[in-house]
Amino acid sequence: MAQREPDRTGGPSVVEREVHIDARPETVFEFFVDPAKMTRWKGRQATLDPAPGGEYRVEINDQAVAVGEYVELDPPRRVVFTWGWDGHPTVPPGTSTVEVTLTPDGDGTLLRLVHRDLPAEEVEQHAHGWDHFLPRLATAASGGDPGPDPMGGM
Fold first, then answer.
1. Confidence band of 152 (pLDDT split at 50, 70, 90)
2. Of the residues 8, 21, 107, 116, which has the maximum number of CB atoms within 10 A of its CB?
3. How far apart are CA 1 and CA 3, in angstroms?
């Protein structure tokens, strides 16, 4: 998985990741808009309304609930949603943005994720989270079983 180092200047920062997935973009896109598919790789419960202004809510575990709203959907090429954590003082709901671009790559897809507008002190934790979840997505979208999520029981 390709990575970019976080900005340590104290301003808003970005996490960028790229991963190849052995599935077509049409298949991968569904894992960002279908609650049943979302919870195969991230979260134990999801409420998703995939339309601009629609709800994005993914309960990872009892302490971590990602909340935002869809900003842009261009099936099967791109999905953009706001992001934050329910009850979090530094990254409250809607204060950062996740942009996912899906590009055909042979028989699969190159997924590029850019998570921007994070406070500098939150970049490392969010990078760790995406490094945990994106391989799970690659497994699930390609037809495999990523198994129970170790973060789901926290």
1. confident
2. 21
3. 6
Give just the sign of the alpha carbon dihedral 16, 152, 139, 48. negative
pTM for this entry:
0.91
CATH class, range 2-7+25-142: alpha beta
Which two three-digit tokens encode residue 110?
Answer: 């190159």
Q: Which residues pair with 105 in a beta bridge?
A: 108
Structural domain spans, the chain: 2-7+25-142
Spatial distance between the Cα atoms of 102 and 135, rounded to a whole number of angstroms: 15
**Span 64-103, pLDDT tens digits:** 999 999 999 999 999 999 999 999 999 999 999 999 999 9
Query: Does the N-terminal peptide bond of residue 25 adopt cis geometry, omega within 30 degrees of 0?
Result: no
Which residues have C-beta within 8 Å of that of residue 146, sequence separation ≥ 6?
40, 41, 135, 136, 139, 140
